[in-house]
Write a structure and sequence with these properties.
Order of helices and strands: HHHHHHHHHHHHHHHHHHHHEHEEHEEHEE
Number of strands: 7
Keywords: Coiled coil, Kinase, Membrane, Signal, TPR repeat, Transferase, Transmembrane, Transmembrane helix, Two-component regulatory system
CATH superfamily of one domain: Histidine kinase-like ATPase, C-terminal domain
Strand content: 5-15%
Distance between the termini: 44 Å
Mean pLDDT: 81
Protein name: Tetratricopeptide repeat protein
Radius of gyration: 32 Å
Strand order of the largest sheet: 2-4-5-7-6
Helix content: over 70%
Shape: globular
Structural class: alpha+beta
CATH architecture of one domain: 2-Layer Sandwich
CATH class of one domain: Alpha Beta
Organism: Flagellimonas olearia
Largest sheet: 5 strands, mixed
GO molecular function, one term: protein dimerization activity
Length: about 650
């Protein structure tokens, strides 16, 4: 319904950051209790109490939150322990995330990460990884967001922390909503809600109700969405968390819009905008104002809609935030259409198109290619019809001529004409047969070219998705290095090392994709050769601590480029998973031919894992998705203490 729903979920929901849960008591009472405790604390304990006071103030007063966080950091600097500084860096990252600066938030978290990872505090590590996942989500790097949320869940489970296990369920629900899986998203939100209800944690029950509301909005079940959002609104009100009411009010506005209650939606948006101004969430404000302009337009209030959209568009341009520019230019184009100012409507439509092209270049490329292929197919069909018409006209002409000859002569003439007709008919049949053969060949070549274009388009999308995300991260590291150029040589060396590592990964994936694009077909021997290169890379990267054995007799069969590339990608991901997670010093890869199928088995002999939890793995989801699209049978088995085996089968 609105692009506001597609923003990183951290804008709608709450980050899981605090080392203490917020219970049903009034937040101000909790702050007062911490202030009383503060008088009895000294040294490192005082640092943590000041941090907790700052975190509680996030829901009440943003300036007070920053004030107490600064005091906590000043106290941490007086100690000789970097651990407590790192704890405050994570908290600063949370405040930066609240204020719409995810890159700055991520910088704080990455600064704290090497220090905190030396600790054995599962709760602290879980909080760090959760907030890193939220920052990556806001930067649209969803694979990293899921990876760090799963790391957080592992730590919370190790610490048997039900509160934060439920929090991880909420964040996983957020990730599934981003990839347009609202049913899975709702399932995780409801799991979290049940845990919080069992714990009696009213604050997180309220937060979960708002998450459930957002899932129902994506499912377009607006009555249910409004019901859960209203529960969340009332819950925050009863606890005195006034600023937190911005989130359920936003969902109430979206639900009212969906139900076409435009006047109610307008009032809710005005209320949400006022609250978000106090919170200082700049990105959320841009989209809230855009939605309000659309609601005003629905009510026929074109002048108010125009003034609001223009002012917000200027803000988005100043921030150079392309998603908001895209949404607002589309809204302004619609407004000027209603005002019958087609010149301005066209101008903003062009701006919307330019922004959309920069956001969705690969989709536009695919549309252009599809139109081109459709046009070429129509041209070929028209040519076939033209030639068929010429054949029919030729046959009619010959029959007419033969009839005239037969009626003008005697028996000899009849015999001659009959012979001539028979000769001509045989010649026409031969000519027609030759034309039909040529047309069938041309159509077969056209189908082959279309199949090849589709394969290369799929590979191009794969290139865009994999290499594009890594280049985006390189850009982020470059920006961070430029901002921190005054921080010294050590900081810059760290950033350059990160850039080198991601460049090497990008080059490797680019070579694999180019290898596939340069082939119409990929043989199993090609895949085997690439797997041997992968094994050599593993040996070198682990100093021969992990051995990769490749077995199997030669297989002289081929696959098309799309299937072959996806098959190798799954083998590559399986080996990488074994190296990273199995603790096995040996990985076996077997190539086997089974009648009209070929089987590849990747097996390690490490620690294995509990398969009941495998549905939360993003890597496994990606491998299964690749296999499904390419027509590859995929199976994974794992036994704790014995290892993991991945079996792939494909028809060849």
């Amino acid at each position: 319904m609105t692009i506001f729903q597609k923003l990183p979920i951290a804008i709608f929901l709450f980050l899981f950051f605090s080392s203490q849960s917020i219970m049903a008591q009034d937040i101000q009472q909790a702050i007062d209790a911490l202030k009383d405790t503060l008088q009895l604390k000294e040294g490192e304990d005082r640092v943590l109490v000041l941090k907790d006071i700052g975190m509680k103030f996030r829901s009440v007063d943003r300036d007070s939150a920053r004030h107490y966080m600064d005091k906590a950091y000043q106290q941490a600097e007086t100690s000789d322990d970097d651990y407590y500084k790192a704890r405050i860096w994570v908290a600063y990252g949370v405040l930066s995330q609240d204020e719409g600066r995810p890159k700055e938030a991520l910088d704080f978290h990455l600064k704290a990460k090497p220090i905190l990872e030396t600790s054995k505090d599962y709760s602290v590590l879980g909080s760090l990884y959760t907030n890193m996942g939220n920052a990556y989500e806001a930067l649209s790097e969803f694979d990293k967001a899921v990876d760090f949320q799963l790391k957080a869940l592992e730590n919370y489970e190790a610490g048997k922390d039900s509160l934060w296990i439920a929090g991880s369920y909420l964040n996983l629900g957020n990730r599934f909503k981003l990839i347009e899986e609202p049913d899975l998203s709702l399932e995780y939100y409801l799991k979290a809600l049940e845990i919080y209800k069992g714990m009696g944690n009213e604050y997180m029950v309220t937060t979960s109700n708002n998450s459930v509301a957002s899932a129902y909005i994506v499912k377009k079940e607006y009555d249910a969405a409004f019901e859960y959002a209203k529960k969340a609104f009332d819950g925050f009100e009863s606890m005195g968390a006034r600023l937190d009411q911005a989130y359920p009010v936003t969902n109430m506005a979206l639900a009212s819009w969906g139900l076409e209650n435009f006047e109610e939606a307008e009032q809710y948006y005005i209320q949400a905008i006022a609250l978000q101004k106090e919170r200082g969430e700049r990105l959320a404000l841009l989209f809230l104002k855009n939605d309000l302009a659309n609601v005003l337009l629905k009510q026929g209030k074109e002048n108010r809609a125009e003034a609001l959209a223009l002012a917000t568009y200027k803000e988005a341009e100043q921030m150079d935030f392309i998603p908001a520019i895209d949404a607002l230019s589309k809204t302004l184009s619609l407004i000027y259409e209603e005002k019958v100012d087609f010149k301005k409507a066209y101008e903003y439509h062009q701006r919307h198109k330019a922004a959309r092209d920069s956001l969705y270049f690969s989709e536009k490329s695919r549309e252009v290619l599809n139109l081109k292929e459709k046009y070429e197919s129509e041209q070929k069909e028209n040519e076939i019809l033209r030639q068929q018409n010429e054949l029919v006209e030729s046959e009619l002409s010959i029959k007419k001529r033969n009839n005239m000859l037969m009626g003008s002569g005697g028996l000899l003439a009849i015999l001659l004409i009959a012979g001539f007709v028979m000769f001509r008919e045989q010649k026409i049949k031969a000519k027609n047969f030759a034309r039909e053969t040529a047309l069938e060949k041309a159509m077969a070549e056209a189908r082959a070219q279309e199949d090849l274009k589709e394969q290369r388009l799929r590979i191009a999308r794969d290139l865009h998705d994999n290499i594009g995300s890594q280049l985006t991260y390189l850009t982020s590291i470059t920006d961070s290095a430029k901002r921190g150029i005054d921080k010294g040589e050590v900081f810059l060396m760290e950033k350059l090392t990160q850039m080198k590592q991601f460049s090497l990964v990008t080059i490797s994936e680019l070579r694999d994709t180019i290898w596939a694009m340069n082939k119409d077909e990929i043989s199993f021997e090609d895949i085997k050769e690439r797997t041997q290169q992968l094994a050599a890379t593993v040996h070198e990267a682990t100093d021969d601590k992990v051995k990769v054995n490749i077995k199997g007799s030669p297989i002289h069969k081929v696959l098309n480029a799309f299937v072959g590339m996806n098959l190798f990608r799954i083998v590559q991901e399986s080996v990488n998973n074994a190296v990273k997670h199995s603790d096995s010093d040996q990985i076996d890869i077997r190539f086997e031919e089974l009648d009209n199928r070929v089987q590849i088995v990747i097996e390690d002999f490490g620690k294995g894992f509990d398969t009941s939890g495998e549905s939360t793995g993003n890597g496994l989801h990606i491998m299964r998705n690749r296999a499904q699209k390419a027509g590859i049978d995929f199976d994974q088995e794992s036994i704790l203490g014995k290892g993991t085996k991945v079996t792939l089968q494909v028809r060849a």
